[in-house]
Design a protein that fits this description.
heterotrimer; A alpha/beta (about 280); B alpha+beta (about 300); C alpha/beta (about 350); A: about 280 residues; alpha/beta; Metallo-beta-lactamase, Chain A; six-stranded mixed sheet; five-stranded mixed sheet; 9 helices; 11 strands; globular; C: about 350 residues; seven-stranded mixed sheet; 13 helices
Amino acid sequence: MIVGAGGNTTMQVGDQGILLVDTMYAQLSDKILAAIRKISNKPIRYIINTHIHPDHTGGNENLRKAGATIAGGNVVGNIRDAGEGAAIVAHENVLNGMSAPTGVQAPAPSGAWPTDTYVHGQKDLYFNGEAVQVIYQPAAHTDGDSIVFFRRSDVISAGDIFVTTTYPVIDIQRGGSLNGIIDSVNRIIDLAVPADKQEGGTYIIPGHGRLCDEADIVEYRDMLTIIRDRIQDMIKKTMTLQQVKAPKPTSDYDPRSGATTGLWTTDMFVEAAYQSLSARK
Amino acid sequence: MPTTSLSESGMDNALRSRIAVPLLLLLMALFATPALAQVDLSGAWTPRYHEDQPERIPGPELADYLGLPINEEARQWALSWDPSRLTMQEHQCQVHTVAYIYRGPLQVRIWEEREPDTQQLIAIKQYISTYEQDRTIWMDGRPHPPDYAAHTWMGFSTGKWEGDTLTVTTTHIKQGWHRRNGLPSSDQITLTEHFIRHGNYLTHVSVVNDPIFLAEPLIKSQNFVLNDTASGNWLWPCEYVEEIADRPAGAVPHYMPGENPFVNEFVNRHGIPVEAAMGGPETMYPEYQRKLKPLLEKMRAQKK
Amino acid sequence: MTDSAANTTGSQKPEARSQNGKAISFFWRRSLLVSGFLFVFGLAHASYAQQQQNLDKVEIHVLPVQGNVYMLVGAGGNITVQAGNQGVLLVDTQFAPLSDKVLAAIRQLSNKPIRYIINTHYHGDHTGGNESIAKVGTTPNVGPGANLQRPTATIIAHENVLNRMSAPAGVQAPTPTAAWPTDTYVSGQKELFFNEEGIEVIHAPAAHTDGDSIVYFRRSDVVSTGDVFVTTSYPYFDLQAGGSINGVIDALNRIIQIAIPKHEQEGGTYIIPGHGRLCDEADIVEYRDMATIIRDRVQAMIKKGMTLDQVKAARPTKEYDRRYGSTTGPRTTDMFVEAVYRSLSGKK
């Protein structure tokens, strides 16, 4: 796990090379490379993007250039410019969001785009002697979320579906939803097997924040489910957004996860949850 | 303990035990031998449960937060907590965190880990029988890990000798509870502990700072006695089972705000005003008795 | 695989045999409605003496798979062994008379105590050794408050395995109490963390029986499938015990979803079938394709209103018969087609 600014980067290292999950911001690429080189001199083979946001994909172009795709491997048929730069794996919707039809200015440079996308279910890799599952999480943080499960290492990279620093960001404009996030968190809990006494075993790297295990994400799941149930109940009583906000449905969680300033305030979370649950925009 | 009317003696006991702690600390400060006198804490220790016995052995009652310096948010969290949450598979084998585990039935074995060549003290280790927890208190001056490191039930502990008192600072503790009736403790608590040995007695004082759920530090103390014939009960196996087979996937049991059905259970049984049972820092101090009196009178008047 | 199992378990000693007699009649009563079963039963019964002799000569072979996991091959279902510092875990136990040999094979791998037995389903060729092997194992520290050891290994299975091995009070159970699962789960899956790896026991609903589990060793990257996957015959699903062709196909797809091949669709996750040879994803994919194609064919014929005889006459399994088919033995191609037909049409 590499921690800097933006989303956490996960690095898997072995004889075959290096696999990265997410790339933080572009300005940090040199520092990320330096951190990688402290651990391994092997080439970067794969970059996996958990979703589209620039704090997770900003370094795609730089880090891809520093790497090389395995040419002749079992993925070669899927990759443009085989062998040139690392392969960037993501859900199809990440590519759709970063690119644009011909003639239209794309939101991200083409060198940053995923080179290898999947549409349904999951994408499997076998790299550095372990199976790596890239599993699609529909309509969660965005419409193109993947979690990455390193099976032999027993580690899951959750992307922004799971953050320990704030309430989850629900990017409704990009097709995210609160229920999708909760489903996805339950999926991660299903995958995680704790070692003795509900501790350790499978480790979970959140999109932002500290390294976790199942017990930590269970508390997060409980919180989201309880808040969801409360707001859902209020919507059922046909309360308006203002009426929902007034009794502070998140009050017991605000000291830990709430914010009144910054990019993602409690107000914004409640509003997004309300919109998501009432499906009104 | 009488349970029919307001248990004044019980109240007094609870209050007295909390006053006793600062006094004890003061006494210890006075009589502490200065300099580098390090005490060997090694041995098997068995707790004495007389302090706060009803909480520690039978277990706390629901919606009883009396005498705990919790904030508004902690109260809301706790009132939403449905005990059925403990039937969920992921919560069944959940461990009491290091800030709470010394309260329950347990045995503690303490030993030292020394560098073989120099005999320098590297760590003081503890094995706690409840939930089979291993604890390492690093004595070699190493720093605490960065914020983004994993949190555990026992957290990351460093210790130093202050006179003959072992003072331990613990961070990186998982979310748990301040009282096992749903009163949450956050994953951002800092625990400061003092282990003081007097012959065959060991006093353990813990101070919990919780920026999320406590308005003031929560200070508790426990006593242990050296157990020369410690036997049995060192294990705590836990394997989860399906307790509720037909619970829909993804459901988390909780009470909607204002709908906790047990709010009046504890207060009715003991004749305590709800305001007091809801806790908060002022309910820790003796001065609260003055505030309690009119509340009690009002309550009795209402009953008539 | 039920029928031959019932015979073998009964062969240890006279009283066990009489118990077995009841066990047989138990199955017998359940099966009265199926005319086809009569024939099978008689056949299995006839081969009883022969079977007994065969078991005497059976050797248990040990095949290291990968990681902590080994495959034991003898008679009856394959046994999976996972061994490490904490002890030994078994998936399935073959027949009771083989237990001494199975234990000897395990002891070549590890001297640690046997802690867990997982049953993939209730059939006797997978659970016959439960009692004798569990007896040799221990379950550490049972119950807080005492340093107790349960004097036998823990037997884990889906709840329906227990239901089929036990009986209500006052009714003679088909198997002895000591062979019953001690730790069951009802839905979804049960997770363990043993010998430094996560182990998922995953329920496959209405597949080979109504109580199938597949066992996935996560760090070793090995799946033990039980009889939802066999390399020796067409899929066998026990309609009387709640099995179905669609459940088997769902289970195969579930295993394929778990499996990740290493390179060029080979290796990576290894798959231990209920009967037959060690496999990887490519093998089970072929098997799934076969099962799906035959299912689709029979389904289409049922839609056209064809009778069982008409379906059989059309030979929907033709190109697979040389590999998986049989005209003799306890499970013939005819019986497979009939079972697929009944499973899909809901006709008993």
